[in-house]
Each structure stands twice: as C-alpha cells, then as structure tokens.
Amino acid sequence: MNVITTDTPTHDDSLQRLETLADISQRLLEKARAMGATQAEVSCSEERGLDVNVRLGEVETVESTHDRGIAVTVYFGQRKGSASTADLQEGSLEATVAQACAIARHTEDDPAAGLADAELMATHFPDLDGWHPWALGAEQAVDLALACEAAGRGADGRISNSDGASAATAQSLSVYANSHGFIGRERSSHHSIGCALIAGSGDGMQRDGWYTSAIAREDLDDPAAVGLRAAERTVARLQPRSLPTGQVPVLFAAETARSLIGHLLGAVSGGALYRRASFLLDSAGTQLFPDWFGIDELPLLRRGLRSNAFDGEGVATRDSALVSAGVLQRYILGSYSARRLGLKTTANAGGVHNLRVAANAGDRASMLSSMGTGLLVTELMGQGVNGVTGDYSRGAAGFWVENGQIAYPVDGITIAGNLKQMFAGIEAVGSDVDVRSHVSVGSILVGKMTIAGND
C-alpha cells in the first residue's frame, strides 16, 4: 500500500507550455509551406525530470533534466526531408525548416512517402488521466531512495551489499501537428522507485532487485515494501544449481512473459514485414496461438501507460483485437509501412498502445501447481532470438519446480525453442499481471522447451 503523501504542484503551467509548443508548430508549418513543401509535419516536445541514486546509505547522483526537441519533416511530392533542433530562436527554427527542405529536394521519390490520409486524423481528444506531476524535491527523493535501500539491506542477514536504490519523476509535454490541419497535444507523467541488492559472498554472491513505477505517485508501492521485495528475490537466488539437458514445461514469470509478447510485436510490425525479415510473413488471419488466447489493444484506457487518442501521425486510435481466438487479426502498421505492404495503417505509428493479454488461469501459485514439475523463469539474458526464423535461445535463471512447489534456484542454463512452436504451445496465461508495463500479461506457461545446463 502506498504511503507517499507529497503534495502536487500548486501551480501547473503545463497547458500554457503546451500552447507555446502548439504555436511553434504552426509557425513551422507555415514556413514549410512558404518554402514550397506540399506537405509537412512537426513534433515538439519538452521533458523535465529528477533522478537520484544512492548506495550504501550515501548519495551517488542527483540529476535534474530539462530537455526539449523540435523535429520538422517536409514532403515535396513524394520526396522527404527531416531536420531537428532544440533552439527556439526564430533564426534557428527557420534554418531547421530550410535544412529539411534542402534534404527533400535532393532525395529520390518514394511512392510510400507522405502524411497519413487526412480523413484518418483524430477529432476527439478525451482526458485519459495520464497527467499526474509530482513536486518531488531532491531531498525527499534522496530520502525515498535511502528508505528503500535501508529496508532491503536490513531485511535479511544474508544481504551483504547493495547495487543502489533510486527515485525518479518525469513529466513530458508533446505536440504533433501537420499540414492537414491536425494538431494534437499530450501531457504525461511517470514516477519510479527501485532497489538492487547483493546477497552472499565470494563466488556465491547473487544479485536481484525490484522496482515500482506508475503514472501517478499514489499508485507507487511504498519504498520499504520495494526494498523488502528486492531482498526476498535476492536471497531466494542463493546457492543455485544447474540442470541437466532435457525438455520440460517452462513457466515465464509475468516480468519475463511480456518479452514473449514483445517478440510477437517485432515480428508483425510493418518494418520487419516489408523488409521480409520476419518469421511471421503472411500470417494475418492464421492461427498462431491456442483458440482461447487473445490480445487486445486498448489505446483509450484511462491512466494507461501508453494511452493516446492519436498515433505518431495523428491517426485516430481505437480499441481493437491483435489476436482473437488464437488468430492473428492484423499487423502493426503506420502509414508508410502500410503503403509498402498495400494495406491500411492500424494507427500504430510510433508503436503499440496498451496491450491486454487474456488470462485463462489463476495466480502464480496455481500456475506452479498446474505445471507440476518444470522450470520457473524469473530472468532472461542475452539476445539469442532470430527474428527471421523465430529460433529462440536465451540464458535464463529462476527456480526448479517439483510437485507444484519451488524446490531450488537455478542459473547458468539456456532455454531454447522456436517462437512459432512456443506460441502454439502456450498452455496457460495467469492472472498475476505485472502492472509496470503497457503490455498487461501474467505468467505464461509453455508446455515444452529445451533446457541445457551443466549437469
């Protein structure tokens, strides 16, 4: 439960700052038009943040940031040029547009280039509750990080060292505008507290940690609870064993399960598809998962980590299925990749919004019970995934499970398979969702994978 009670700022000038960015974007569009561009788009952003790090009870770093950026893209027919700046002086803004125009004049025609179609622009902008700035001062941020680390270090005598703790807050303002007359404004905030600890000594040392993150500070876990969770996870990894090579069921804990969804997203994204660099070419409309499996995209979810009424091109977003009854319903496309593929944009320029993977099982304990004997994966290492073939091989650590109960920790192993077969072999998705990601998914049980260890 949260006990953080810092007041929000008494004066919030974010709306005025958004209007300033909107005015700049309109001036830039007018300059692009005056220089002969047939189409143009402008992205303006401003970010402010505070990030503190402590270790062993001492402050290591305090970093305050205030960044801004302006990007201009112009089209001369189907020739494209882009330039960016962080300088708001009128001369610099004009030079940025001129540079983008000069680049466009010297590029070749690209039949897929251009803004998204005008009729697709968003016209409704609901409040999605993504703006919760936190008036977190450096001293209090240090106190929160120290409290988190102290709770973890004091939780168990086997905690021998610390890799540090942190507290951070950030807020972002952005405006996207284009020559269709579209202008979209967005305010977002994000806060986090985390801790990493070390247990044991010598060759037997183990490291792990935990963190909490949220859009609103009241949704953060208490710093002490985060430290205690970090300590529990670290101590649980002491005296690990390896495993003999074989094929066993593998339960991906929620914090690792979302990486499986990430591999799916990469394979069905427009860039991979039009480059013919995906193991899921021509897979829309085909059965990839069990018939109970589903993934919905929910861009209009209130207080969602990736909620927005429009994508990176101004296209209106809407709730839609990515996977339904195990069948891939569509790809993930912006207007450029859609044109390259002869399809229509799915309002995913800039990436996916909030994804929710349907659960068909209970919490982790019930998932372990249903697995019986197998491997629980709590950490993945390495990048051994081939996006063209779907071959999967990654280092892993976690726990060996016998009779539905954790028997002992394991590390120094590799898990391997093929993503197509792994997707088809998913037996259950748990309700133990890790809420720290825009991919909302619980633990995922894959019926059989190859594990290789030293035993």
TrEMBL record:
Annotated coiled-coil segments of the chain: none
UniProt KW keywords: Hydrolase, Metalloprotease, Protease
Keyword Cell cycle (UniProt): no
Domain Metalloprotease TldD/E N-terminal: 40-104
Domain Metalloprotease TldD/E C-terminal: from-to ranges: 245-453
Record bears the keyword NAD: no
InterPro entries, alphabetized: Metalloprtase-TldD/E_C, Metalloprtase-TldD/E_cen_dom, Metalloprtase-TldD/E_N, PmbA, TldD/PmbA_N, TldD/PmbA_sf
Residue ranges occupied by any Metalloprotease TldD/E central domain in the UniProt entry: 132-238
Domain of life: Bacteria
GO molecular function: metallopeptidase activity
Signal sequence coordinates: none
Entry-linked Gene3D superfamilies: PmbA/TldD superfamily
EC number: 3.4.24.-
Protein family: Belongs to the peptidase U62 family.
Name of this protein: Metalloprotease PmbA
Organism of origin: Stenotrophomonas capsici
